Amino acid sequence: MSQIDLSNPAGFRRTEYEFSRRRKPVLRIGDTGPGIVVIHEVCGFTESVARFCRWLAAAGFQVYAPILFGAPDASNPEVKSLRRIVELCVSREINLFAKGRASPVVDWLKPLCRQAHAECGGRGVGVVGMCLTGGFALSMAVDPTVLAPVMAQPGLPVLSPAALDVSETDLHIVRERTRREGLVVHG
Predict the structure, then answer these.
(1) Which domains, ranges and CATH numbers included, belong to the chain?
(2) pLDDT tens track for 146-175
(3) How high is the pLDDT of residue 76?
(4) Which site in 112, 142, 162, 177 is 20 to 30 Å from 126, CA atoms measured?
């Protein structure tokens, strides 16, 4: 049995994107079809996330997986560590406890959606937020390029399970998009 080199996930290309004066690596897979931005969960980009991205690429999508924290490859362990939780608690990009406002990293992710939209032929993009980042898809749905926001087990804000990590203004915009454009938000 051969070992898989997790530091270089098979089939992925690493690209650096800079928005809002912040530069982040983005792992990409797939050469044709609409774009999908897959936002990893608290463990970072793991082999399970890589497998999910490969599955989406095989289904005909171009996948953009921004690395928000952790190693920019699939070597991140698939366990939630105390160290990662502490890093997130002091992070200026992710609001773990704030209700009624999006995490600042969403301001970086929205331009990534617009870039994916342009690079993939302008047909719109999907967004999948996972657990900790699940609600980011809702905040990103204010952007007209986002046509398929999917919140997979949204986990923010922590300690307030009935609250959302999106501003009232953004939530109003998303509601209007659902009414006027038929946008469907999946959760």
Answers:
(1) 13-181 (3.40.50.1820)
(2) 999 999 888 777 778 777 888 899 999 999
(3) 87
(4) 162
